[in-house]
Every structure is written in structure tokens, then in C-alpha cells.
């Protein structure tokens, strides 16, 4: 019984634990990747960044529950995808600010210097 | 759109936020003080409650509090502190306020501890050598570290506001529940969602602005001589 609740049946809907892990991993990875692109865009194009900053500030002001609720009104979207979309948007709005802060503290010139010193992107 | 229905929802959210945030700050200061205690029982109990509060989702706390307090109905002698909520559900509302407070207290206590550590061991030792009372020490630590901790406390209090939406799982009147009911009653999805989003953003901005004002205020007080801060 507990196993079914946690992991679900094969070829059926996922159980609670499996679904939680899936939602966490997907939303975290997507939010981190999109957040990096977003932060790079803001640092690179400051004027365009104002619009992006406004959008992320607006999303940060909306509760996660309301974001999922709004996503549930999208046509032809499954419940799991609605939850995932809400989580991605919510995580993205928080992660981007942290990544923007990181990128603005490490400007392009500094990154070029580290590459010239033989430090790759991952080590950087 | 039923404006009076909406305004009661906003009032309910503001009331729940105010009571639970206030209680949460009191619990957080207690847990912060307990985490600095030399007494092992106090120290480990405080650390345990901080980890418990941070590790368990607030939704679980709210659902548990609601289910546990349901059989306690009705509590007609209780003061009616939640606008719009039926008198018979005031006890459930109170239990949810406590659950919400406990859900944020662990995070706030960790922020206060981070602020405490940012001051440095030497300056903390100076405070003790000066013979300051516990209240004055907490006051001084808070003002010294306000620049570092106020943005984090403000962000947590905005998150706390968003957590209040979980109260809609029970017959407690607050904004998220009102938006849901408004859509079910009128089928005006975009209108109700738009208004709900707008009010949530407005409330979040108000909390952030108040946090920034307090940060500025504490930062300016920090520049005063010690006699101006400690009575």
C-alpha cells in the first residue's frame, strides 16, 4: 500500500514520492538553465533587462498556489504539466535574481581573464 | 465583481499574515536564543525545532493543524479575530495561524543566527563584557546586522504571505479562497485571477517597502552612539 502511494503502479500515474522528486528535479534544472540565460541577457542588455526584471518581480509577488491555479486553466495541459509550469515559473523568478547578482559580480572581462589563465567554464 | 466579498478576503489575508508573522517572529527569537544556549537540552531542542520547521512543508503543518483542530469545534467563547470566517471555524483559523507561524519560525531563526555570526566573535564578547541584558544584546545584534538580515527577513515574510493561501484548504476566509469562489460563482476567470494577482503583488510590494524602510531606519540608528541604542 505504502509502496503504491510512494511510487505508483508501473504503466500508471506516478506515486507521491516519485512525482515530488520528478517535479523537483525538472523544475530545478529548467529554472537554473533558464535563469542563467535570463541573467546573461540582463547583464548583456541592461535596457532589455528592465523589462525582464519587471516581469520576474511581478511573478515573485504571486503565490505558487495561484500560479499553479492559473496554469490549470490552460487548455489541453495535463495536471502534472500545470504543476511543473507553476513550479518552473516560481523557481525561475527566485533563481534569476541570485544568478544575476553572481554574473554582475563577475563581469565579462573577469571571465575572459579566467579563460586566458586556462580555467574552464565549469571550474569558473 | 462582488467587491465586499473580495475586501473581506483581503482583510482575512492581512489579519492571518499579521498574527502569524508576529507569532513567527516571537518563536524565531526564542529559537535563536535557544540555539546560542550553553545548556545542551535547550540547544538541541532549539536546533531540533528549527530543523523540523524548515524540513516539513508549510502545507503539511496547515493540513495537520486544520484536521487536529476540527473536532474542537465550536469555540464560541473565542474572540472573533478572523474577518469573514464563521465563528465556529475561529478555532481552526487559530490553529492554522500557529501552523503558519511555526512553518516560518525556523527559517527566520536561521536568518537571525546568520546575522549574529556576521557580527564576529570579538564584538559579541565585547557585548557580554559590557554586562548588557539579554534584551539589549538581541536589540544590538539586530541593529548591527540589520543591513545583512533585513532583505532576507523581508523575502521570508513575503513567502509567508504566499503560504497563507494554504488556509483555503479549510473554510477560512482569505484571498486565494475568495478568488477560487469568485471564479466558481461567476465564471469570470481572467477578471478574478487578474484582481487576485494584482492584490497579492500589492501586498508583497508593501511588505518589501516596509522591510526596506526598517532596514534604512536601523542602519541610521546604528550610526548613533551606544547610549542612544541601549537604555
Please, could you describe this protein's structure?
Chain A is mostly helical and 124 residues long. Chain A contains six helices and no strands. The termini of chain A are far apart. Chain B is globular. Chain B is mostly helical. Classes of the chains: A mainly alpha (124), B mainly alpha (231).
**Largest beta-sheet characterization of chain A:** none
Order of helices and strands of chain B: HHHHHHHHHH
Q: Low-confidence runs of chain B (pLDDT<50, min 5 residues)?
A: none
Round the Cα radius of gyration of chain B to an integer and report it: 20 Å
Helix content of chain A: over 70%
Shape, per Cα inertia axes of chain B: globular
Number of strands of chain A: 0
Main beta sheet strand tally, sense and closure of chain B: none
Strand percentage of chain A: under 5%
What does the secondary structure layout of this molecule look like, with pairings?
The complex is a heterodimer of chains A (124) and B (231).
Chain A: H1 2-7, H2 16-44, H3 46-60, H4 64-71, H5 79-105, H6 108-116
Chain B: H1 3-35, H2 40-55, H3 58-69, H4 90-119, H5 121-129, H6 134-144, H7 146-163, H8 175-186, H9 189-222, H10 226-229
Helix pairs in contact in B: 1-2, 1-4, 1-8, 2-4, 3-4, 4-7, 7-9, 8-9
Amino acid at each position: 500500500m505504502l509502496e503504491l502511494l510512494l511510487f505508483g503502479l508501473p504503466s500508471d500515474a506516478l506515486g507521491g514520492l516519485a512525482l515530488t522528486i520528478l517535479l523537483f528535479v525538472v523544475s530545478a534544472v529548467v529554472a537554473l538553465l533558464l535563469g542563467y540565460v535570463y541573467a546573461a541577457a540582463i547583464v548583456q542588455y541592461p535596457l532589455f533587462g528592465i523589462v525582464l526584471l519587471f516581469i520576474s518581480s511581478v511573478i515573485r509577488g504571486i503565490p505558487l498556489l495561484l500560479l499553479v491555479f492559473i496554469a490549470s486553466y490552460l487548455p489541453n495541459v495535463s495536471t502534472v504539466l500545470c504543476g511543473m509550469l507553476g513550479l518552473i515559473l516560481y523557481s525561475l523568478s527566485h533563481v534569476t535574481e541570485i544568478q544575476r547578482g553572481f554574473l554582475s559580480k563577475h563581469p565579462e572581462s573577469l571571465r575572459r581573464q579566467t579563460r586566458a589563465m586556462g580555467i574552464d567554464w565549469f571550474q569558473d | 465583481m462582488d467587491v465586499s466579498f473580495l475586501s473581506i478576503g483581503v482583510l482575512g489575508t492581512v489579519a492571518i499574515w499579521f498574527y502569524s508573522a508576529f507569532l513567527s517572529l516571537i518563536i524565531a527569537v526564542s529559537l535563536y536564543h535557544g540555539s546560542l544556549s550553553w545548556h545542551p537540552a535547550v540547544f538541541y531542542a532549539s536546533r531540533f525545532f528549527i530543523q523540523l520547521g524548515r524540513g516539513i512543508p508549510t502545507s503539511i503543518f496547515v493540513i495537520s493543524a486544520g484536521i487536529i483542530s476540527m473536532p474542537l469545534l465550536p469555540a464560541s467563547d473565542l474572540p472573533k479575530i478572523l474577518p469573514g470566517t464563521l465563528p465556529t471555524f475561529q478555532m481552526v483559523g487559530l490553529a492554522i495561524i500557529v501552523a503558519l507561524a511555526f512553518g516560518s519560525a525556523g527559517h527566520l531563526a536561521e536568518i537571525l543566527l546568520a546575522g549574529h555570526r556576521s557580527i564576529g566573535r570579538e564584538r559579541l564578547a565585547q557585548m557580554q563584557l559590557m554586562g548588557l541584558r539579554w534584551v539589549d544584546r538581541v536589540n544590538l545584534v539586530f541593529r548591527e546586522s540589520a543591513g545583512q538580515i533585513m532583505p532576507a527577513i523581508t523575502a521570508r515574510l513575503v513567502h509567508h504571505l504566499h503560504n497563507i493561501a494554504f488556509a483555503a484548504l479549510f473554510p477560512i476566509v482569505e484571498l486565494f479562497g475568495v478568488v477560487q469562489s469568485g471564479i466558481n460563482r461567476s465564471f469570470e476567470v481572467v477578471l478574478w485571477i487578474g484582481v487576485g494577482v494584482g492584490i497579492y503583488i500589492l501586498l508583497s510590494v508593501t511588505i518589501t517597502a516596509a522591510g526596506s524602510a526598517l532596514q534604512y531606519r536601523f542602519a541610521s540608528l546604528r550610526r548613533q552612539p551606544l547610549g542612544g541604542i541601549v537604555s
